[in-house]
Amino acid sequence: xxxxxxxxxxxxxxxxxxxxxxxxxxxxxxxxxxxxxxxxxxxxxxxxxxxxxxxxxxxxxxxxxxxxxxxxxxxxxxxxxxxxxxxxxxxxxxxxxxxxxxxxxxxxxxxxxxxxxxxxxxxxxxxxxxxxxxxxxxxxxxxxxxxxxxxxxxxxxxxxxxxxxxxxxxxxxxxxxxxxxxxxxxxxxxxxxxxxxxxxxxxxxxxxxxxxxxxxxxxxxxxxxxxxxxxxxxxxxxxxxxxxxxxxxxxxxxxxxxxxxxxxxxxxxxxxxxxxxxxxxxxxxxxxxxxxxxxxxxxxxxxxxxxxxxxxxxxxxxxxxxxxxxxxxxxxxxxxxxxxxxxxxx
Length: 346
Ligand code: SAH
Description:
Shape: elongated
Number of helices: 10
Distance between the termini: 23 Å
Bound molecules: S-adenosyl-L-homocysteine
Oligomer: single chain
């Protein structure tokens, strides 16, 4: 995998310009190469058709392009596409294109596996193997953008960090990737169309607020009662709801932006009035939106989606308190591409 050559994508635009200026060419060639790498998503130097053959050869002798490769692609009957993405070291992550009438959303991964241990999530079974670097995150977006154009005749409109991994446990790289996604030299997407979903790492939520990030935040809450949440998301023991709530208050004070909570209602776990009252109490400090997401079974039936009566009760009680609530249907279930089903099953 060209591992002895330097990865050209580790170079900034300025470094590329300097490289050309000091190798008998002109600095603007560096800008051209940068555009090939970051705007046009070139995987091979020979694709860089506005460079001379000799220049392309010279680059090939000096550098490699450590890009990702779509290793497998499955298309669901509802238009969802799940990609197995091969990284330069052979590891695999998954990214999903979710088309709806108005949107094309990319769901991207931030880590190989995950260090958290949510009992209902398939990715947690993989453990965390490594963080993705910024380019590997950015490349997933570019690959999905290409698929969106190819299969749906439109570019990506939204990005959600809801694939494999906990984005706030790989914060710096996620931030760098988002910088590139939103910069004019990258894809030029608005940060308002990006959602970072976290299981709730209070320290990092505070940091995001202090860094004044411009993208949106979603929190996978699933319960506002500590004992219940700890039983399904054991790290809640370390980061209890009080800390999460204080961090979110800090986030809201700094950003003034609505907070979205992701929430699955399971039979016998969080389907009572007491659970709903706790949720209302938890999220009333700031304008909130609760996304009731459908459970995607991952195994032996330990968890069962609650029935419609329980969901309806959530909706009516939340609405009565003016909390926006949506009931979200899963996409791509037939190919294991839905939330929490990403586990390299192929
Ligand atoms: N680690 C991040 C992002 C990845 S999970 C987070 O926890 O937010 C993306 C969303 O899918 C989260 O809300 C997560 O709780 C949810 N999820 C995980 N497993 C699921 C499953 N089996 N069915 C439905 N949603 C699930």
